Amino acid sequence: MAKTASPKQQLFEQLALIGRALGHSARLELLDYLAQGEHSVEDLARAARLSVANTSKHLQQLRAAGLVDARRDGKYVRYTLADERLLDMLAAMRGIARTHLDTVRDLLASYLQGRDGLEPVPAHDLMRRARDGLVTVLDVRPAEEYAQGHIPGALNIPLERLRERIAELPVDRQIVAYCRGPWCVLSFDAVAGLRAAGFDARRLEDGLPEWRRAGLPVVRE
Amino acid sequence: MAKTASPKQQLFEQLALIGRALGHSARLELLDYLAQGEHSVEDLARAARLSVANTSKHLQQLRAAGLVDARRDGKYVRYTLADERLLDMLAAMRGIARTHLDTVRDLLASYLQGRDGLEPVPAHDLMRRARDGLVTVLDVRPAEEYAQGHIPGALNIPLERLRERIAELPVDRQIVAYCRGPWCVLSFDAVAGLRAAGFDARRLEDGLPEWRRAGLPVVRE
DNA sequence: GCTGTATTCAACGTTTTGGTTGAATGAAAG
DNA sequence: CTTTCATTCAACCAAAACGTTGAATACAGC
Q1: Which residue in A195, B16, B130, B172 has its CB near the most CB atoms, within 10 A?
Q2: Which tens digit of pLDDT belongs to each residue from B98-115?
Q3: Would you say B67 and B31 are in contact if contact means Cβ atoms under 8 Å apart?
Q4: What domains, with CATH codes, occur in chain A?
Q5: Positions of strand C less than 7 angstroms from a protein CB
């Protein structure tokens, strides 16, 4: 005879499905990429440095939890975030982690080696200063992610190219770099590199997904 | 030699700790009780129908994820929610689950057998109507949870007592019942029972934790 | 001190999850 | 129709999570 679970138990069981889906670093990383836009399986596998089969299995788990959608596109299967509310969940997770997990506090502190000047720029500040032409907005994500949506007027120089293309940046204005999210390494590294090269550089507080979620304008080119 | 993980990986690993903590129905149920107020271990074990040792281990896992705090109080250890933002996370989880998981949709639909009249009352509606004396607010949670905080003016009749104490309720006004959260079974059952007894009964959309989180007034007696 | 009660710990077997490998499927291109 | 490539599936082992048991710890009351 099968176990009979109360409706209450069944609901908790379903919620736990979502929790478990968020309970593995590889899946969180995949979600981070998916928050930037649509990606194929092998695309994600490469980005997360996972085997394709493993990536596929993780994606299926995310799909079973209702967090991502998949659609066939010729030979490829393109995955996307199923629900923007997931960004709220992840933001709450980060908030709790930062407040209550010492390891997280330490890790974030060690990123912020430059201290003072590296305090992040809030989104609404950037909006105002960008409109007044006071800053250069720099998107340091890979070109494909930039193409799928970015802050209006932002210049795209993927982090790996920053060193070689640094001459394209104006020296007279502050540079505000952003990437995938508030904890994305790319913009931390970019700001460090830019400051080392003599620029006045700051990080945007959040990444593009949060910017979009806040209802701020995003363009596709 | 130990595995060296990048800071990015380490951060995801930490977040996954929180995800995993939310990845088990028993822990979600414990959090649901804890959202009502402080509870001892055996208290929680009884409520969730778990062994004490098992409950203790789950609580420690929640603590390691920074979701709950523990304090000694004589012989007892009292656990509480560590962060109100957890309520935001759980709300987002419920939202996603309801939209994307068929099982959840079905379970919620089967609760709402009475359909039409059982649409839940939004919190701000209740505030207005309670102020104007148009409704009776009924808290159907156990007395200990009511004692730790409830909606001002609410009458407490735990669900198990409802049948025997139903005469205490005024027949001329609508009754709005609430309990632990938007998916808490207690108020669903209460409303069904009240309607069967001829009352005009509705459910509050959310439970007390969400009411408190929304900044609405809560009293302790 | 001793006793009773609440909680945690350690050890154990069981179940579930994670990751790999190699084969199977589905669609496009020749 | 065969080849090719992206993805999924199935089988397998290794690792982690669950739950129980019985012992250990912590505190209150005597």
Answers
A1: B16
A2: 999 999 999 988 876 655
A3: yes
A4: 7-83 (1.10.10.10), 114-213 (3.40.250.10)
A5: 4-10, 17-23, 26-29
